[in-house]
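User: quick one - fold this with iron/sulfur cluster bound?
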Amino acid sequence: MKGRRVNARIPAGRAPRVMVAAPAEAPRDCALCPRLATFIATNRAAHPDWFNAPVPSFGDATGRLLIVGLAPGLQGANRTGRPFTGDYAGDLLYSTLAKYGLSTGQFAARPDDGLALKDAMITNAVRCVPPENKPTGAEILTCRQFLVSRIAEMPNLKVILALGRIAHDSTVRALNGKPASAVFGHARRHSMRGPQGPLALHDSYHCSRYNTNTGRLTTEMFHNVFAAIAKDLGA
Ligand code: SF4
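Assistant: Sure. Structure tokens for the protein plus iron/sulfur cluster:
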């Protein structure tokens, strides 16, 4: 990240606090969250052919749209190494991106399917797969340094779409805001400010199988959020 700094983890009282910049992508061997590092190590042993590492962001870093999900799914992104790829959650997201002209190629739920994003990037608030899809507050906080840097390293960023409340709250905090002042709600739009200038933060319920199966999120509801985003992007 270029403008903002995060604290290195140096125990208080032992050395002066050194400020180091976090990269936009976590290193493959990141072990800042011990519980998640242990979970990944267990999965590596059980499934050595899976990706089993912090999942990097996917898409166009010069794009104007950043989509922030929660965390990799065990048999989805954690297996394939690409966000929203390999489990159900990607089906609705990638078909919607194609509908709104934000991708080229055909999504086939494989990282080698040739799909590319246009003017958009996808990341996660937490880069490592958490047990039962539930990261702790400390893990969300620890991984935020990469989200902060991801946001800062998109020079043309105009719109962020947060999928679910956790992604929303972490994004608001990454933008130095307070979730109490920008409360999550499906189809809500918040005027925020990022390192690049004004940003629109859109919210949607997460496009998980659970939310779509229960009708909490319908295809139409999700498309309507993208229609609002397209308006912000002038598309
Ligand atoms: S969740 Fe983020 S901070 Fe925690 S170990 Fe994974 S990459 Fe590192």
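One thing worth noting: The pocket of iron/sulfur cluster is lined by residues 26, 30-33, 36-37, 54, 126-128, 139, 142-143 (CB under 6 Å).
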